[in-house]
Design a protein that fits this description.
The complex is a heterodimer of chains A (332) and B (673). Chain A is of the alpha/beta class and 332 residues long. Chain A contains 15 helices and eleven strands. In chain A, the strands form two sheets. Chain A has a six-stranded mixed sheet with strand order 7-6-8-9-10-11, sandwiched between helices. In chain A, strands 2-1-3-4-5 form a five-stranded parallel sheet, with helices on both faces. In chain A, β8, α11 and β9 form a beta-alpha-beta unit. In chain A, α10 runs parallel beside α11. The radius of gyration of chain A is 28 Å and the shape is elongated. The N terminus of chain A is likely disordered. Helix content of chain B is 5%, strand content 57%. In chain B, the strands form six sheets. Chain B has a 22-stranded antiparallel barrel. The longest helix of chain B has 16 residues. In chain B, 47% of the residues are buried. The chains are: A alpha/beta (332), B mainly beta (673). Chains A and B meet through α6, α7, α11, α12 and α14 of A and α1 and α2 of B.
Chain lengths: 332, 673
């Protein structure tokens, strides 16, 4: 600046210098205003896309919860736009320049990751093993993370400790898709519980496998695996564990109502809230780097009183169990 | 970069053009967020023992196998206070087996309601259960629940002394093909083929079996039975399920006195028995604790036994000995049809209600024998029942039951029941209950008209007094239940007093020319006792079950009468001897190595008489059975077993003369999945 002014002082007349000065100030102001408006545009750039796998049901519950939580976080002015899979196919990613894409459900996660978006992708409403399988399928691409539907083995074992403190042996059944859960389970229980776990490859194997793991077990940890989640297999599992007087720890409200004894699960509303918090944290820091894939932050503990009573189990109330769980978790 | 992006999107578009399904091999959000039909519904969830107003004994699969029992009645020795008596060579019916609770019975132990999957198998003609001709095998049984004490409010009349509920194995439990072959002393041969298949909507299992044996030593009582049954469960949708059970069985049975004793009114012959049943049930689950059920079943039994006989001795019209003079026709056809409606619902957080009504039609045809000249002896019954479970607090459970019944033969009757359960804490429960039970007379007791034609003259052997009342029982009890936290150990103690009245007896009229026996109300008894049951499951394949019952019975019944012109005079005899003082059972199983399990089953029963001949007291006996089972490996649970029974010495459990000596069996089980 100085050198220009120096050069300028030889060429320009004093009057013109004043005009130039005024013009410079004007241009500066304009730049500042432009810059300001630009940042207004950038404020609207705190935009995320939400891609649900389908319409209705749990997806709507999730997106409603997510959107309302984001709206309440006024400070960060996050705009959430819902994009259907069809729109995604038609190049919605190019039209919008989102900071982040929230894929809701397995199908959406697969579709979004396969489309190689530039923005980081947060997969939600997806089981852990499915998320890992999709990653393997689509390969390394955009930055990605997830909030799983299932809770860690550690958390589930904490519920066992809180609900059935005298339990000594845990039974579980898995399929070929959920081997990583078996590994984690084996590592987590060592020293604390005896573990009886079997992997089932064909539906015909389920009954025998169940009978062998249920003997002398104090609780059965239900695992969501396609090999064992067909309705009539779930039915046989509930009947067999009841026959063996073994309570079932379910991963969903549906399974609890069907006949499990206790359940640890998260509702789409809770998951929406967790997702919103994650997004807000990113917007606040300005750095849209996703955290590690994680289990849900918020959860519900359910007890099926009829089944518990019929099994002769004196379980504490849902509220008390939650209190104890939270106390345990805060200590970790 | 840009070019690659375009290319990338093009590829992506290509991917989207193909159907991109979520991988079927992976779980998805549907598994976690979707709805499932209720499986453990109100009827599937049994009332916990601590809430039940009575002592409940459960014999499960592990105990059934450890017992080494080769027939179903043997299993009841494991229940505190139960006795099993084997009669043979009885004029009334081939080889009745009596299963009694607290004694006080004859060979047709009528004081118990016995159900198989909700269908009563009580015989409406003579009462009792035809254990021999059941189209059911020990291996078909998943577990047996025995409610000790009258339970009319829930199970209707004839749930007099106890209720036995036999639950068969579901197809899911016994998937695949299972074969069993048994060979034993006494000509014992058994074979069973079972097949179970489970599908998305339909589960089905089929059992086909055959058994034969040569009966007891010197008696002419060998028998054979072939049977088949089908059990199916069809799930129409999330709420509606249909259960269909069909069965059929039958076979020949030798009867008649031993040739050397040779009474010609009971010659050696073969009788034929056949039966079948059909049962259909519809269940609709409204919610976790609300369910409706409608059931229909039909039992049919046909017993054919007609022969020429020579009546010996005193009958004045009889011809000289050696000339057959009459046909004794004991053939009888019995049919029972039953429809029942039941609804379970929850009224508020503290009240649960089970209510329903039932209609039952019994008919027995024996126009040439027991019901001479009658087209059929029939009884129609209508019953309304309800049982409310009230839990005013966490510690209290109150059961209130009431049943009202009207039947053709005895009119209107009521059976109330009240039970109070108080949880002392950590698995300990105290219980007090009072219940009222009734036993409607069996068709024979009510309508007996057994007539023989001797030289053209009708001679009445059995008849019934008019205006017969049902037997009634009032039962008071105090109980204590302890269940350990791990549910590995439990103790059940019961103290009771039963007051029984209007016992139906059949004394012989001493003055009748033909020794006519008349069914009439003529007896009462008072039973007081204590029962103790301890179960222990240390884990693995071990188990220990100990039952002990102490009973004192006083009472009297009409054992004879004379119908004089001046009125009837009665001879009363004490019933005291018909209830054994002590009944004890010890069952233990323990593993011997990886694949072998050994078990021991010991019973002791004090001296006990039966009503046939009350002075004929069967002495105290001990029964010791030992079983060793060795797993043969493979997927199907194949194994071989050796059973030795009656190792504590020869004994009789009914009348002297029918003795049990040492028996050995080899059982081979093979499973193919």
């Amino acid at each position: 600046m100085r050198s220009l002014q120096a050069r300028g002082s030889r060429l320009w007349r004093p009057g013109l210098r004043r005009v130039a000065g005024a013009l410079a100030t004007l241009f500066n102001c304009l730049f500042i205003i432009a810059g300001f408006s630009a940042s207004q545009v950038h404020a609207a750039d705190n935009m995320i896309l939400i891609v649900p796998s389908a319409s209705g049901g749990a997806y709507v519950e999730f997106t409603d919860s997510l959107q309302s939580a984001l709206r309440q976080d006024g400070g960060n002015r996050i705009e959430a736009v819902i994009v259907t899979l069809a729109q995604l196919r038609n190049g919605a990613l190019d039209k919008y320049k989102p900071r982040m894409i929230v894929a809701v459900g397995t199908h959406a996660t697969q579709a979004v990751l396969a489309s190689r978006p530039g923005a980081p992708v947060l997969a939600t409403l997806i089981p852990r093993v499915s998320y890992h399988a999709i990653l393997l399928q689509t390969g390394a691409g955009s930055q990605h993370s997830a909030i799983f539907l299932d809770h860690s083995i550690e958390r589930r074992l904490r519920l066992v400790a809180v609900a059935l403190p005298r339990a000594r042996q845990i039974a579980a059944l898995a399929g070929s898709a959920t081997q990583e859960i078996v590994t984690e389970l084996k590592a987590a229980v060592s020293g604390r519980y005896r573990l009886r776990v079997r992997t089932v490859h064909k539906p015909e194997m389920v009954d025998r496998a169940l009978a062998s793991v249920l003997i002398d077990s104090d609780i059965f940890l239900a695992v969501a695996d396609p090999a064992i989640s067909e309705q009539h297999i779930v039915r046989n599992m509930l009947l067999a564990s009841y026959r063996h007087r073994v309570p079932v720890l379910a991963y969903s409200a549906g399974l609890l109502r069907a006949g499990a004894t206790i359940a640890l699960y998260s509702t789409p509303t809770q998951l929406g809230r967790h997702t919103a918090e994650l997004v807000s944290e990113r917007a606040r820091s300005g750095r849209w780097i996703l955290p590690r894939a994680q289990q849900p932050r918020y959860y519900k503990i359910g007890v099926n009183g009829h089944v518990a009573r019929s099994l002769g189990l004196n379980l504490p109330s849902e509220a008390l169990l939650m209190k104890r769980m939270q106390a345990l978790e805060s200590r970790q | 970069m840009r070019a690659m992006l375009t290319a990338g999107s093009g590829l992506a578009l290509g991917l989207f053009c193909l159907p991109v399904w979520a991988d079927p091999g992976m779980p998805n959000e549907e598994d976690f967020l979707g709805e499932l039909p209720v499986v453990l519904s109100a009827t599937r969830l049994s009332q916990p023992r601590s809430d039940a107003p009575a002592s409940i004994t459960v014999i499960d699969r592990a105990m059934i196998e450890a017992s080494g029992a080769q027939s179903i009645p043997e299993l009841f020795r494991l229940v505190p206070g139960f006795q099993v008596g084997h009669d043979t060579n009885d004029l009334l019916s081939a080889d009745p087996i009596a299963v009694t609770y607290h004694g006080l019975s004859n060979a047709f132990a009528r004081g118990m309601q016995v159900l198989v999957d909700g269908r009563s198998i009580y015989s409406p003609d003579f009462g009792g259960v035809q254990w021999h001709s059941l189209a059911l095998d020990v291996d078909d049984i998943e577990r047996i629940e025995i409610i000790r004490g009258p339970n009319g409010a829930a199970y209707g009349v004839n749930a007099f002394m106890a209720v036995i509920n036999i639950i068969t194995r579901s197809a899911a439990e016994s998937r695949g093909l299972a074969l069993r072959a048994t060979m034993g002393t006494n000509g014992e041969r058994q074979s069973l083929v079972r097949y179970g298949a489970v599908g998305t909507n339909l589960d089905m299992s089929v059992s086909i079996g055959f058994r034969s044996d040569e009966g007891h030593g010197s008696f002419f009582d060998s028998k054979q039975l072939h049977f088949a049954s089908i059990r199916g469960e069809y799930r129409l949708n999330d709420r509606d399920t249909f259960n269909i059970n069909l069965g059929q069985g039958g076979g020949p049975h030798q009867a008649g006195a031993h040739p050397i004793a040779a009474p010609l009114d009971n010659p050696m012959r073969t009788v034929q028995r056949d039966g079948d049943y059909q049962q259909i049930m519809w269940r609709r689950v409204h919610s976790t604790d609300s369910e409706t059920r409608i059931q229909y079943y039909r039992n049919y039994h046909d017993y054919r036994d007609a022969y020429w006989a020579d009546l010996i001795g005193a009958t004045p019209l009889s011809l000289p000995d050696g000339i057959p003079e009459t046909i004794i026709n004991q053939s009888i056809v019995v049919e029972r049809q039953d429809i029942e409606f039941q609804n379970i619902l929850r009224l508020g957080s503290a009240w649960r209600l089970v209510w329903g009504f039932e209609g039952r039609w019994d008919a027995a045809r024996a126009p040439q024998g027991w019901f001479y000249g009658m087209a059929a002896a029939t009884n129609t019954l209508y019953r309304a029942f309800s049982n409310a479970e009230w839990q005013p607090s966490k510690r209290w459970t109150i059961n209130l039951g009431l049943m009202g019944e009207h039947n053709e033969s005895t009119g209107l009757g009521y059976s109330p029941r009240i039970g109070l359960n108080y949880r002392l804490g950590t698995g300990r429960t105290l219980r007090a209950s009072y219940s009222h039970g009734q036993r409607t007379p069996a068709l024979l007791e009510r309508y007996a008209n057994a007539v023989l034609l001797i030289a053209g003259t009708p001679v009445t052997l059995y008849n019934s007094a008019p205006g017969m009342r049902p037997e009634c029982i009032k039962s008071y009890e105090i109980g204590y239940l302890y269940e350990s936290d791990s549910r590995r150990s439990s103790i059940d103690i019961r103290l009771y007093q039963d007051i029984i009245d209007d016992l139906i007896v059949y004394p012989i009229d001493a003055l009748s020319p033909f020794f006519t026996a008349t069914f009439m109300n003529g007896g009462f008894a008072n039973i007081r006792g204590a029962e103790f049951e301890w179960r222990w499951r240390p884990g693995g394949r071990g188990l220990l079950s100990f039952s002990y019952a102490y009973a004192e019975q006083t009472g009297s019944f009409i054992s004879g009468y004379s119908n004089t012109p001046l009125g009837a005079t009665y001879v009363w005899t004490s019933t005291g001897a018909t209830t054994p003082r002590h009944t004890l059972n010890l069952l233990g199983a323990w593993p011997m190595g990886e694949r072998t399990t050994a078990s021991l089953n010991l019973s002791h029963v004090s001296p006990m008489a039966w009503f046939e001949i009350v002075t004929n007291v069967a002495p105290a006996y001990n029964k010791l059975d030992v079983r060793v089972a060795h797993a043969l490996g493979g997927e199907g649970g194949s194994r071989i077993e050796f059973v030795a029974q009656n190792l504590a010495g020869t004994f009789t459990d009914f009348t002297k003369g029918v003795t049990f000596d040492r028996r050995y069996y080899v059982v081979l089980r093979m499973g193919l999945k």
